[in-house]
């Protein structure tokens, strides 16, 4: 099992490139189910979840080519015949995004059988909102032996108000609605850039969608979709992670190939902490200031609020700020599993319910630590960059799910980090 070995103390200097967004790429790959034609996606990150999605689509009968060499970040998907519309548990058990094939499968074939999803153990991400929406559109949904099965002759447009904001629910039902009969109106939708990215692909495929990126989306169903070529958005969470890496290391780092407009809440908090930022069109330069970083509280919210996927990384930064930081986690109920490991490295963090209190500035020390989920893993890497001595991170397969060769990228800007074990993606 792979491990990272990180020796702290080096400021990060130079330019680091942001990959495509995993959380955009996964629903866009699922959207290829909606047409018999070829869908080409560019700027696809080489991470484990993408490979899992490839296996999932291939198991249903799709032709999926993940490019290498000069076209290494491109995928071609052709779902000409879906011979087996089942998302099998042995494939999806490590990935929450498996529920994203439910909507497109039933819209295309009239039947879908999907194993209840796996992925990071950061709290409940109920699929009941997906089910409620599909039932409103005329589907019959049953649950049997760990699988959801949905059936319908043809989905019908409906007026759906989400009980709570859900990114995957918005995406899944959006994909179902584009082939439904009549108009579907969604209210209380997720506004994340990943939803907008998916809508852009669906529109390029011939869907009629209005309002993506707002709380109300209208879809006029069409009888069929065609192939398209689409470039995936840059990964705002990877970009945010690198911004924190530059800040926590006291470096001078240019984060290139990002979309600053997607990072507003994080950038505001970093500036509140005293981090110097130079924002360009597709890049952000982060520099250590002349004064010590100061504490600034955060409260995670749905987009455009502070992203829950940056909470753990920001907490690592908070250990190095002057003063006390209060971190309120409002999205997932079990997303403080990194706290124990950060405390083992010398942090002073206490948790009560969904609130963590970070007392800085703490001199961090090297330790053997365990990665528990994707973003917790990133926070431990960030802490290790400033810890005294050599930190060993175990179970880094979690970080491979969503960061493309993060150790190579960080090493390229001066971090002392190496991987022990078989490198993911090595041929």
Tell me what you see in this structure:
Helix content is 30%, strand content 25%. It is of the alpha/beta class and 427 residues long. It folds into 2 domains: 203 residues, Enolpyruvate transferase domain (UDP-n-acetylglucosamine1-carboxyvinyl-transferase, Chain, Alpha-beta prism); 210 residues, Enolpyruvate transferase domain (UDP-n-acetylglucosamine1-carboxyvinyl-transferase, Chain), CATH 3.65.10. The protein has a 4-stranded mixed beta sheet with strand order 22-23-1-24. Strands 2-15-17-16 form a 4-stranded mixed beta sheet, with helices on one face. Strand 22, helix 12 and strand 23 form a beta-alpha-beta unit. Helix 4 runs parallel beside helix 6, helix 6 packs parallel to helix 7 and helix 8 packs parallel to helix 12. The longest helix has 13 residues. The C terminus is likely disordered.
Task: Briefly say what this structure is.
The chain has 14 helices and 24 strands.
Provide the descriptors you would attach to this structure in a database record.
UDP-n-acetylglucosamine1-carboxyvinyl-transferase, Chain; alpha/beta; elongated; four-stranded mixed beta sheet; disordered C terminus; 427 residues; 2 domains
């Amino acid at each position: 099992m792979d491990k990272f070995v990180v020796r702290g103390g080096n400021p990060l200097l130079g330019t680091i490139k942001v990959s495509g967004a995993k959380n955009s790429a996964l629903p866009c790959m699922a959207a290829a189910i909606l047409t018999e034609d070829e869908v080409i996606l560019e700027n696809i990150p080489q991470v484990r979840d993408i490979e899992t999605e490839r296996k999932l689509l291939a198991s249903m009968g799709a032709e999926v080519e993940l490019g290498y060499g000069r076209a290494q970040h491109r995928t071609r998907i052709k779902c000409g015949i879906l011979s087996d519309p089942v998302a099998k548990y042995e494939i999806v058990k490590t990935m929450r995004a498996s529920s994203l094939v439910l909507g497109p499968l039933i819209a295309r074939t009239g039947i879908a059988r999907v194993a209840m999803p796996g992925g990071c153990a950061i709290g409940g991400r109920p699929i009941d909102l997906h089910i409620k929406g599909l039932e409103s559109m005329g589907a019959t949904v049953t649950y049997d032996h760990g699988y959801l099965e949905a059936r319908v002759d043809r989905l019908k447009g409906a007026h759906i108000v989400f009980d709570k904001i859900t990114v995957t629910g918005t995406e899944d039902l959006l994909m179902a609605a584009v082939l439904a009969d009549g108009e579907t109106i969604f209210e209380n939708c997720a506004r994340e850039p990943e939803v907008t990215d998916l809508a852009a692909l669906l529109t390029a495929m011939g869907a009629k969608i209005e309002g993506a990126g707002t709380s109300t989306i209208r879809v006029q169903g069409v009888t069929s979709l065609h192939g398209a070529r689409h470039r995936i958005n840059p990964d705002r969470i990877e970009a945010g992670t690198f911004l924190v890496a530059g800040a926590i290391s006291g470096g001078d780092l240019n984060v290139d190939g990002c979309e600053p407009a997607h990072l507003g809440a994080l950038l505001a908090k970093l500036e509140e902490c005293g981090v110097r930022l130079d924002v360009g069109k597709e890049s952000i330069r982060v520099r250590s200031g002349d004064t010590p970083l100061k504490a600034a509280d955060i409260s995670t919210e749905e987009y455009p609020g502070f992203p829950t996927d940056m909470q753990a990384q920001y907490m690592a930064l908070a250990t190095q700020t002057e003063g006390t930081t209060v971190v309120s986690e409002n999205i997932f109920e079990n997303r403080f599993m990194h706290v124990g490991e950060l405390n083992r490295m010398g942090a002073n963090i206490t948790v009560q319910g969904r609130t963590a209190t970070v007392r800085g500035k703490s001199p961090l020390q090297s330790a053997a630590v365990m990665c528990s989920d994707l973003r917790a893993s990133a926070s431990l890497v960030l802490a290790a960059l400033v810890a005294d001595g050599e930190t060993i991170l175990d179970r880094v397969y979690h970080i491979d799910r969503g960061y493309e060769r993060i150790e190579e990228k960080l090493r390229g800007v001066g971090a002392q980090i190496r991987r022990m074990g078989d490198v993911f993606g090595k041929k």
